[in-house]
Design goal:
- The structure is a homodimer of 364-residue chains.
- With 364 residues, chain A is an alpha/beta fold.
- Chain A has 3 domains: 12-82, 434 Repressor (Amino-terminal Domain), CATH 1.10.260; 94-195 and 325-356, 3-Layer(aba) Sandwich (Rossmann fold); 197-322, Rossmann fold, CATH 3.40.50.2300.
- Helices cover 42% and strands 14% of the residues of chain A.
- Chain A has 14 helices and 13 strands.
- In chain A, the strands form 3 sheets. Chain A has a 6-stranded parallel β-sheet with strand order 3-2-4-5-6-12, with helices on both faces. Chain A has a 4-stranded parallel β-sheet with strand order 8-7-9-10, with helices on both faces. A two-stranded antiparallel ribbon of chain A has the order 11-13.
- In chain A, helix 3 (37-44) packs across helix 4 (48-55) and helix 10 crosses helix 11 (226-239).
- The radius of gyration of chain A is 27 Å and the shape is elongated.
- The two termini of chain A are 52 Å apart.
- At the A-B interface, strand 1, helix 1, helix 6, helix 7 and strand 3 of A face strand 1, helix 1, helix 6, helix 7 and strand 3 of B.
- The first copy, chain A, binds a DNA duplex (16 and 16 nucleotides) through residues 34, 36-38, 46-50, 52-53, 56, 58, 61-64, 67, 82-83, 85-92.
Amino acid sequence: MKNSTSPQQVPPAETSHLSAAVNKAEAPAEALRRPTQRDIAVATGMSQTAVSLVLNRVEPCTVSAEVRERILQTAQQLGYVPNRVARNLKSARTRTLACIVPDITNPTYPALVRGFQSAADAAGYDTMIFDTDGTPERERRALQWLAQGHVDGVLAVFFHLDEAELLTAVRGRVAMVQVESQAYRPSPYIDKVYIDNAAAAQAMTQVLIDKGHQRIAMLSCPIGPGAERQRGFHAAMQKAGLAPHIIAADDFTQAAGARAMAAELAGDFRYSAVFAANDLLAIGTMATLRAAGRRVPDDVAVAGFDDIPSAQLLQPALTTVRRSEQAMGHFAAELLIARLDGPDTGRPGRGFELPFQLVLRDSA
Amino acid sequence: MKNSTSPQQVPPAETSHLSAAVNKAEAPAEALRRPTQRDIAVATGMSQTAVSLVLNRVEPCTVSAEVRERILQTAQQLGYVPNRVARNLKSARTRTLACIVPDITNPTYPALVRGFQSAADAAGYDTMIFDTDGTPERERRALQWLAQGHVDGVLAVFFHLDEAELLTAVRGRVAMVQVESQAYRPSPYIDKVYIDNAAAAQAMTQVLIDKGHQRIAMLSCPIGPGAERQRGFHAAMQKAGLAPHIIAADDFTQAAGARAMAAELAGDFRYSAVFAANDLLAIGTMATLRAAGRRVPDDVAVAGFDDIPSAQLLQPALTTVRRSEQAMGHFAAELLIARLDGPDTGRPGRGFELPFQLVLRDSA
DNA sequence: CTGAAAGCGCTTACAG
DNA sequence: CTGAAAGCGCTTACAG
């Protein structure tokens, strides 16, 4: 299996059996058992309660320094690590938060998660990520998963589920912040963070109009934030007395963008500008236009939405709408933590509008 | 708070107090308690055991159809969802897997996670993501976290920790697959998946040499896979009788690449090709070169490693090394599941080498 | 066919 | 200062 420098290789292949011998010596069932407080109690001749007290440094109840030392040392020796699951059961808290996102490979979401995790971390919470694939089935599965009590709080981006469904599933048992893509509506326990998608889309459309474009198409997918962005697009077009046209994409991926544009180009494509509902769609659009021999922005101007890192790497660099996903994630985690650890416990749901920014580059 | 179409807005601001009223009506402590099996038992007049039996469809022990129906209905009515934490405590299994990655915003990792999650999902496992930031401290924290029993298995990408540290922390209590960046060495319980980083780097360097480049620098960071890739670079250069030069980056981000190249350009930069240890570094390099008025590939050729989605979007498109992160993630999850649910339980650790592929584009 | 009981590993009043 | 005991919500032998 010593591979030469040949760049083409074969699928997953086992490379070593040496390890078999190594393993034989270890790993009988016993080695796998994790030491518990009881083990430490037995080893030190103390009670399990005393062990728990010492290990948790409970202050009012002072165990004698000598005993404490012995317990601590034995714990160390046995490699004791508290069983978080057991602790969670007792405390009814998991100290874990989750991010539910439609597609972790869309660069906008890792940024959200990163910001979220930095705040969660600082407060001693772990972070889970649940990828819904943007489908109703998997969004429901995420909801079921939430109901099972894995986490204390969640930042959720849902494309399909409505408020009612969320409320019945969650029932205030897990703190929730939603990245809202529709217009804000108050909710009993759910906080919402959002940007004004319609306003942003309208502003971007207006930029295109101001540049003299008259035949502008929007490439969008009606789910998630697509609807609001289309609304903004329509508003701007209508205000300018122009006819809006929507090119429908199957989802928000680059591939979907390329596909939809290819289909459109096969017909009688006469638009001078395409406003894509997100950057991945815009990237797909640009690729298809280029492949068809149309120049961007000379023949067709293109604009996107999100300002993912690739946006400024494109040639021409992509005109788009920026919101700070990282800041949004961070802020959302802080909302959850304030709700869980106070002072916001029991506070009714609120909406928080975050700023957006038009980023004008060369593609439009 | 009705925002106009102004693109510049203010930081997080509260938008609605309407919800306060809505909330008043609900959410007193009682509503928050999740129904348990005991609640169902009380409501139906059956024992908690019977409830558990019915809800878990334990086959040999048949509860009468009538009682079963009543229990099921009551469970539905009360909105019963099993407490996963309690179940986990009893079963000593969490049915959760984790991915430990250095940086979720590096597009190569979401792909890994996506592949992983698709396999985990199919087997009924949930997936957690832990971001280590590529620092030793946070990698250790990840290890501690593992020891706490949150998950049954993990796919880990560590840049700093060595085998010994992993083994003491994990002790065969959690199944582990490591994306190995050093040369493969067998391990008692840890499976390893990897590509031959040295061979890939050597092959890519050879491509540059074959194109006539003599002054080739490698932009790299010595942690993680950087070391092996440098080794391959050195091997190729040495074989060709050329002098290798390493430009050191602080980490594997685009920013670090840009910084390191800027520093290098400030000196007496005389290289005709730069081979970056990953694509983000390559992207940073290209940006800096362009800013300095150097053309790619005419003045300086650039190659990367990973083939992240942006690589082909760049102008010029980036020459790089591709491995299928998605396939690697999928495969790793399958390894874990086979270990946890059989048939590979207790099998010694093995190494699995995956293929790589040189992707020659315009940047070199 | 059904229930009482023990126990998973921990925390937390409550007695001594 | 220390320990016996109850309980978190569940599963799983074990009796009836």
